Amino acid sequence: MPTDPVNRNLVYVFDISGGDPALLDDETTVRACLSQVVDRAGLTPLGETSHRFAPQGFSMATLLAESHLAVHTWPEDGTAYVTLTTCRAPSSDSFEEDTRSLLRETFSATDVAVRTLL
Amino acid sequence: MPTDPVNRNLVYVFDISGGDPALLDDETTVRACLSQVVDRAGLTPLGETSHRFAPQGFSMATLLAESHLAVHTWPEDGTAYVTLTTCRAPSSDSFEEDTRSLLRETFSATDVAVRTLL
Questions:
Q1: Mutate to test the interface with B, among A7, A9, A76 (most CBs of B within 10 A)
Q2: Complex ipTM, two decimals?
Q3: Which candidate in A62, A114, B11, B115 could, as Cys together with A48 as Cys, close a disulfide (CB 3.0–4.6 Å)?
Q4: What pLDDT is recorded for position B8?
Q5: pTM confidence score
């Protein structure tokens, strides 16, 4: 994959399952993880909005110069998903695999599946 | 389509082309349009983040109780896209067609294509 193509609408959906409920409900953990995803993809955050659900669950959307990133967690189910929509391909060829590993480790998840709309 | 299934990760991408640059750059127009999309889909907004690019272009992400919605416009190209990611199917069976019509009319666009990740 070229390092700097400008495409519109690459969508990555990372579906996390079998995760640790406490980690999925921890805002600091989720935010730090998302920051790493953005950094590794070479993207530029511009702003964010977040919401904590009661009694559990956390959602956040980050606007990027290159589109947006979002996370939604369901601690009660051990699940979450992260979506990246970008008009610029991630700077690393191993973005998908690296992100899967990062999410699996961060949330002690048993599985992280990826779906894409390219 | 059942009216109230809870699925995770329905993704709709509406690609707008041949739009009016002035309308695509008008924040009030974009916001009003997005609010209509949310209302028609029976979704619940929780928060938002937006960014105005210089010299043109506007992006906004709206967090929903059912996930998120975002828009990114490129007035200089007459293009934009709107993505809805939702864990609940839109309440109307004609959501895709209705949204295409709404976007086409709002931005005087020649075409609105839809891609989905279901």
A1: A9
A2: 0.86
A3: A62
A4: 64
A5: 0.89
Under an 8 A CB cutoff, do A48 and B49 touch? Answer: yes
User: How is chain A split into domains, by residue range?
Assistant: 10-111
Identify the architecture of domain A10-111 in CATH: 4-Layer Sandwich (3.60)
Q: Catalytic residue at B68?
A: no
pLDDT in tens, A79-105: 999 999 988 888 888 999 999 999 999
Report pLDDT for B110.
97
> Which H, E and C letters describe chain B, residue by residue?
CCCCCEEEEEEEEEEEECCCHHHHCCHHHHHHHHHHHHHHHCCCEEEEEEEECCCCCEEEEEEECCEEEEEEEEHHHCEEEEEEEEEECCCCCCHHHHHHHHHHHHCCCCEEEEEEEC
Nearest to residue B65, comparing CAs of B84, B86, B44, B48? B44
A8 pLDDT higher than 70:
no
